[in-house]
Structure formats: structure tokens, C-alpha cells
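Q: what sequence does this backbone want?
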């Protein structure tokens, strides 16, 4: 752990690249974001997780759009929800991308590949994806940072002031509540915007 942290910006770049590549194979981003927090703390971990997520999402879109478009079109045609999602993007663009990444109703990796079938510009997609990922990424990075702090403090935990840990736990609870609230609102908005096929 100390070796990775001591690598500085080189370690940061390696982590972002690792995050992006591993996410392409449908490894949950929650695990990677948790690891970012445990290794680098909240703020640096959050920045690295968001960069890795944005890079992975962009690669997914480009892979579908330029390499696997025909295969992806056949695959997603068997899934009405994904097809409806494409129709919604044609009407609302970045708003749908933002809402899908704030809502837990669909796996993010699969969604990113599906968006490659739409005409949404890459930069618009990247910005909406990164913004939509902030709430859940904050939660998992915070959990990772808290776990990392506990691991470091465990040998002399009694010497640490209880108030610090109380405040951290309060921050965790607040983060969870806000994340759940945002996800529910995003889910409701998404259901209203995605058209239904008969």
C-alpha cells in the first residue's frame, strides 16, 4: 500500500488506467472507487476514480461506435429497455446520460456500451457521465477512505479522539442519505423520460 502511495503521479496514472481497463470487463466501479479511497484518501481518491470512470465510459462508447457497432446493435435489439434508452437520448441527449449514471437501475458498463449506438457527441457524453457518477463515487470513495483510516489507526486506536470518528461516521451517514435521495429522484425522472414501446 505504501509503495503505491509513494509512486506519486506515476501511481495515479497507473491507477486511472487500471480502473478504465478493468471497468471495460464489467468489474463493478464500486470496488474500484472503494480501492481509490482506501489507497489515496477521499479527495485524491475521488479525483482518480472519476477520471478512471470517465476514461472507461469514453472507451466503451468508442468501442461500440467504431469497432463493434453491428454486433452491439443486434445484442441491444433483444433488450427493449436499452432500445428505449436510445430513443430517449435522441430527444434529450446529455440529460438521459446524466440520469442513467445517477440511477442504479442499470449496470453502468453496459449502459456505456449502449450509448455508443447513439449520436451523442463524445465530449457531451463524457461530461454528463462524469457529473452523473459523482454521488455514488463519493459514497464508495468515502467508504474506502474510512476503511483505510481505520486500518492505519487500528494499532493505536485508543489514542485517537473519539470525536473524530463520530464526525466521520456522521459524514458517512449523510453521504449515504444524499446518494439514496439523488438516485431515487434520478430514477423517477428517468422513467418519465424513457418512451414506452408497445
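A:
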Amino acid at each position: 500500500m505504501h509503495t503505491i502511495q509513494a509512486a506519486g503521479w506515476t501511481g495515479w496514472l497507473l491507477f486511472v488506467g487500471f480502473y478504465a481497463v478493468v471497468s471495460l470487463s464489467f468489474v463493478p466501479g464500486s470496488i474500484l472507487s472503494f480501492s481509490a479511497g482506501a489507497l489515496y484518501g477521499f479527495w485524491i481518491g475521488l479525483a482518480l476514480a472519476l477520471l478512471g470512470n470517465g476514461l472507461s465510459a469514453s472507451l466503451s462508447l468508442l468501442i461500440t461506435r467504431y469497432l463493434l457497432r453491428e454486433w452491439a446493435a443486434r445484442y441491444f435489439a433483444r433488450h427493449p429497455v436499452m432500445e428505449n434508452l436510445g430513443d430517449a437520448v435522441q430527444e434529450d441527449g446529455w440529460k438521459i446520460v446524466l440520469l442513467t449514471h445517477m440511477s442504479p437501475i442499470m449496470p453502468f458498463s453496459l449502459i456505456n456500451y449502449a450509448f455508443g449506438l447513439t449520436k451523442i457527441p463524445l465530449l457531451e457524453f463524457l461530461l454528463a457521465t462524469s457529473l452523473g457518477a459523482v454521488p455514488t463515487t463519493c459514497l464508495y470513495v468515502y467508504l474506502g477512505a474510512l476503511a483505510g483510516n481505520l486500518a492505519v489507526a487500528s494499532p493505536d486506536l485508543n489514542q485517537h479522539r473519539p470525536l473524530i470518528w463520530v464526525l466521520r461516521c456522521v459524514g458517512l451517514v449523510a453521504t449515504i442519505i444524499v446518494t439514496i435521495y439523488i438516485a431515487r429522484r434520478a430514477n423517477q425522472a428517468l422513467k418519465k423520460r424513457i418512451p414506452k414501446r408497445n
